[in-house]
């Protein structure tokens, strides 16, 4: 099942500067695993040492945060779009 994955600028060096790639899987977690198989280096940037998504990484499926769905077990279908969004912090007003 082909899913489009939007890649943030800081991670595009792993995808040969592609801002969007396709990956396969039946769940968000499987799609991210396929992303790692095709573009090694994603796992260490997305997951912590316990195998959990890093707290500053947000994953959206069709504009919905997967944390409010079924997390990495959220099912995907052909044509869905996953966005990897690193949290932005810092600065002052």
TrEMBL record:
Which residue windows are transmembrane per the record? none
Origin: domain of life: Bacteria
Coiled-coil intervals: none
Q: Which CDD domains match?
A: Ubl_CysO_like
- Pfam family of the protein (one): ThiS
According to UniProt, the name of this protein is Sulfur-carrier protein
């Amino acid at each position: 099942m082909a899913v489009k994955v939007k890649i943030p600028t800081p991670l595009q060096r792993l995808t040969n500067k592609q801002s969007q790639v396709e990956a396969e899987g039946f769940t968000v977690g499987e799609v991210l695993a396929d992303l790692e198989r095709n573009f090694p280096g994603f796992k260490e940037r997305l997951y912590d040492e316990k195998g959990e998504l890093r707290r500053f990484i947000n994953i959206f499926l069709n504009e919905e945060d997967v944390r409010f769905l079924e997390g990495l077990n959220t099912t995907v279908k052909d044509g869905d779009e996953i966005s990897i969004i690193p949290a932005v912090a810092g600065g002052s007003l």
